[in-house]
Amino acid sequence: MTRVLLIAPQWIGDAVMAQPLVALLAARGEQISAIGLPGVAPVLRAMPGVSEVIEAPFAHGQLDFALRRRIAKPLRGAGFQRAYILGNNLKSRLVPWLARIPQRIGYTGEARGLLLTDRFEADEPARVRAASEPMALSPVSCRVPRPQSQGRPDMREHYAALAQVDGASSPVSIPEPTLHISPDEAEAVRRRFGLPPRWIALCPGAEYGPAKQWPVAHYAALAIQARQAGYAVAVLGAPRDAAAGAEIATQAPGSVNLCGATRLADAIALLASCSGAVSNDSGLMHVAAALQRPTVGVYGSTDPRHTPPAAHHSATLWLHLDCSPCFQRTCPLGHLDCLKHISPDAVWCELARLMSAAAPH
Question: Of 267, 306, 263, whose CA–CA distance to 288 is shortest?
């Protein structure tokens, strides 16, 4: 059995989208240990195919050379034959290099791929195709397939392409990102937070900025519709999302604001127990979809062809206006029409459809 080290991405959503690579490696018998930041480690622990998770508390933007050397030291002589490095910067390559792992695979990225033994070019045509294409909502509310975003590959394909080393053939398709939480754990965490069996998760945050955030008033209107349909509603997010969660709870009485009240491991377990989830293009959207919960992702400045949720029971709503995707943190035109004009009614209809389709018959 080949023992390999995976250097995970630093963002939650990217880590989820790396799971197809893990699945491909595990399917051919590679034993995978993963190194990730503490904020990503709970995702890695829920990832089928990962046998060991090593937390690496690197400071953002810092070299942390001494810490990287300490982490690398016990990895020497541990039998690692390969490292798959999913970051594009030089720092992400230091641990496997210091650990003297003989084969280090990644994208050229920074410093012309220095410290890599097998270099992939990020602008090469995608070698694999996702098992199902994301769907987009046009301005006339028609769900239609769209071609790959020019210059921005599907990130699942981007990571999965690294599996093609030493003459490995290109798979016809890649698996959808998948996470797993045991039903007993999900049930215990749901009960601990006082949520009933039928509940909807709302995730109004987005790390990148307000151009990815569906209006709080729309979330509140959606929460009212969900409660009228007999579902409890809880708002999940980081401490920075607490104000948005409080506003949703104020506008939609009876909704529970859990933003900042959960650790990421708790949030993952909660999402595993929910009836459905609505989210901006964020890490929690990717988690919910990979947990195979009915999930609606609302897209504004970003592109669902580039960062789609896992397609188990998900849909993306995206107007694709002339000005979107702009990939800006804030709306450069000041109107945020790409999100404001996605109505709560449209989102609720899509979520209700997904929940109905996923329900046992």
Answer: 267
Cβ-proximal residues to 360 (8 Å cutoff; 6+ apart), any chain: none
Rounded Cα gap, residues 37 and 265, in angstroms: 13
Prediction pTM value: 0.90
C-beta neighbour count of 97 within 10 angstroms: 18
Pairing of strands 118-120, 50-55: unpaired
Write out pLDDT tens, residues 230-284. Answer: 999 999 999 999 999 999 999 999 999 999 999 999 999 999 999 999 999 999 9
Residue 319's SS3 state is coil
For 307-353, what is each residue's pLDDT tens digit?
A: 999 999 999 999 988 888 888 888 888 888 899 999 999 999 999 99
* SS3 of 16-40: HHCHHHHHHHHHCCCEEEEEECCCC
Give me the domains of the chain, ranges plus CATH numbers.
3-129+154-163 (3.40.50.2000), 183-358 (3.40.50.2000)
Q: Could you please report the per-residue DSSP string of 236-247?
A: ---GGGHHHHHH
Q: How far is CA 329 from the centre of its chain?
A: 18
Which DSSP state fits 224?
A: H
| Six-digit token string for 190 | 């749901």
Q: Which H or E run contains 290?
A: helix 283-290
Angle between helices 183-192 and 264-273 (to 10 degrees): 110
Residue 45 to residue 53: CA distance in whole angstroms: 7
**Structure-block tokens of residue 214:** 């569906």
Q: How many CA atoms lie within 13 A of 326 on its CB side?
A: 21
122 vs 116: CA distance, rounded Å: 14
The values of phi and psi at residue 34, to 5°, are -120, 135
CA dist., res. 102 & res. 282, Å (int)? 35
CA 154 to chain CA mean position, Å: 12
Unique residue bearing structure tokens 């959503």: 13
Which among 251, 187, 181 is positioned nearest to 220, based on CA atoms? 251
Report the C-alpha gap between 344 and 327 in whole angstroms. 23
- Are the beta carbons of 318 and 302 closer than 8 angstroms? no
